[in-house]
Design a protein that fits this description.
0% strand; mainly alpha; 216 residues
C-alpha cells in the first residue's frame, strides 16, 4: 500500500467512524502537543546530570569559592541549579536560613516540572469515553435503522453502524494507550528531576553547614 493508498484508507476509516472520530483525533493531537512540549522541557531544559553537577559545586565550596559555584548555577535553565543557587547565596548564614531559601525555591520550581501532566490523564480518559460513546451511537444507528429498512438495505445499514462502533472504539483506545505510555515516561522524568532536587539540596545544606562550622 503506497502513500496515496494509506491516505485513502485513513480518510475512509475516519469518515466511516463519524463525528466522534474527529473529536478523538482532536483530543489526541492536543495531548501529543503537550507531550512534545513536556518532553523538550524535561529532557533538554529542566534536567541536568545531578551527580556530576553536584561534584562540580562541591569542589568550589570546599575551595571556598562560593561565587564561582553561583556562576555555574546561573548558566543553565535546569531546575536543580536554581534550587542550589538559592542555598549558595546564603552560604554564610546558618542551616535554617539556608534550608528556608532552598525550600522556597523548590516550592517555586517543582510545580513547573509537574505542570500539564494532569491534562494527559484527562485526554486519555476523554479519548476512551468518546470511543465508547461512538460505539454506543453506532449500535443504536445499526439496530434502530434495521427495523425500518428494506430487506435489501439491512446488510449495508448494519455494516455502517458497526463501522461507526468499531472505528471509534479502536481510535479511542489507541489514543488513550499511546497517551498513557508517553505520560508514564514524562512522569518518570519529572520524578527524577524532583528526586535530584531533594537529594542534592540536602547534601548542599550539609556541605555548607559543615563548612560554616569548620570556619568558626
Amino acid at each position: 500500500m503506497g502513500l496515496v493508498g494509506t491516505f485513502q484508507f485513513v480518510a475512509k476509516f475516519m469518515i466511516e467512524g463519524g463525528l466522534f472520530m474527529w473529536i478523538i483525533l482532536a483530543v489526541w493531537l492536543f495531548a501529543i502537543a503537550i507531550c512534545l512540549e513536556k518532553f523538550i522541557k524535561l529532557s533538554f531544559k529542566f534536567d541536568v546530570d545531578g551527580p556530576s553537577f553536584m561534584n562540580e559545586i562541591q569542589r568550589y565550596v570546599l575551595s571556598n569559592d562560593i561565587q564561582s559555584a553561583i556562576r555555574v548555577c546561573s548558566g543553565t535553565e535546569a531546575m536543580l541549579p536554581k534550587v542550589l543557587k538559592s542555598g549558595l547565596k546564603r552560604a554564610h548564614l546558618n542551616e535554617t536560613q539556608i534550608q528556608n531559601a532552598i525550600d522556597a525555591t523548590a516550592l517555586e520550581v517543582i510545580p513547573k516540572v509537574e505542570s500539564k501532566t494532569g491534562y494527559l490523564t484527562l485526554c486519555a480518559n476523554i479519548s476512551t469515553l468518546f470511543g465508547l460513546l461512538g460505539t454506543i451511537q453506532g449500535l443504536i444507528m445499526a439496530f434502530g435503522a434495521i427495523s425500518a429498512a428494506e430487506p435489501s438495505q439491512k446488510a449495508q445499514i448494519l455494516a455502517e453502524g458497526i463501522a461507526v462502533a468499531m472505528n471509534t472504539t479502536f481510535l479511542g483506545l489507541v489514543a488513550a494507550i499511546s497517551i498513557m505510555i508517553i505520560q508514564a515516561f514524562l512522569v518518570s522524568k519529572s520524578e527524577k528531576i524532583i528526586g535530584d532536587i531533594d537529594e542534592f539540596s540536602v547534601k548542599l545544606i550539609d556541605l555548607l553547614t559543615t563548612r560554616n562550622v569548620s570556619k568558626e
